[in-house]
Design brief:
heterodimer, A: 113 residues, mainly beta, 5-stranded mixed beta sheet, 4-stranded antiparallel beta sheet, 9 strands, 46% strand, B: 114 residues, 0% helix
Chain lengths: 113, 114
């Protein structure tokens, strides 16, 4: 599984757009990029997943450049309730025989009023 | 549709006792995963189970830890003779039909070993 690097922490203010970038230089051809969100004292929650270009859902957008060596999670107009740890995961979900997710340290996002 | 349920939410044990953590997957989910989160650390995979089968236990400590997912009933993570280093949050996740599906996590069980 490809190693990921993301900032340890980020600060933002309510109403701003937040972009969290994840580096994955050794991403393999079959790897997907997945982001999870974890609130204090709760289990992680799936946010978004993509392979290339752009993916958007009701919560976030995921931008993946052509070389796929990085990805950016974009949260539009954050609120205080978006304060959480955000994990970027990269892995080949199709050819492996196990579903284990490899979590890094994640990015702690602090949204201020 | 109820989410993944874990109980107890908090568990206190003294060194040497046994800890039993339960996980009921979402309805219709047949794949269960256990993860451990030590204080100030990220989540670490422990074990992946399907009904009555252990598929991948590469993250399980070699001793004192065991897991099962019987045909009927919840998945159980069992820790024998707990030590202070076992104090952590233990999360269970489930997915519907395949390990390629999105994993849905439960609220976790926080184990404290005195």
């Amino acid at each position: 599984l490809a190693k990921t690097t993301q900032p340890i922490s980020m600060d933002s203010y309510e109403g701003q757009e937040v972009n969290i970038t994840c580096s994955h230089n050794n991403i393999a051809t079959n790897d997907y990029i997945t982001w999870y969100q974890q609130f204090p004292s709760q289990g992680p929650r799936f946010i978004i997943q993509g392979y290339k270009t752009k993916v958007t859902n009701e919560v976030a957008s995921l931008f993946i450049p052509a070389d796929r060596k990085s990805s950016t999670l974009s949260l539009p107009r954050v609120s205080l309730s978006d304060t959480a740890v955000y994990y970027c995961l990269v892995g080949d979900l199709l050819s492996s025989n196990t579903g284990k997710l490899i979590f890094g340290q994640g990015t702690t996002l602090q949204v201020k009023p | 549709n109820a989410g993944v349920m874990q109980n107890p939410r908090h568990l206190v044990r003294r060194r040497g006792q046994e800890a039993r953590l339960r996980c009921s997957p979402m309805k219709g989910h047949s794949h269960v995963y256990w993860y451990r989160q030590l204080p100030e650390e990220g989540l670490k995979f422990m074990v992946y189970l399907q009904k009555e089968n252990i598929i991948d236990e590469s993250g399980m400590p070699k001793e004192r830890f065991s897991a099962e997912f019987p045909k009927e009933g919840p998945s159980i993570l069992r820790i024998q003779q707990v030590v202070r280093g076992d104090s952590a949050a233990y999360f269970c996740a489930s997915s519907p039909d395949s390990f390629t599906d999105t994993q849905y996590f439960g609220p976790g069980t926080r184990l404290t070993v005195l």
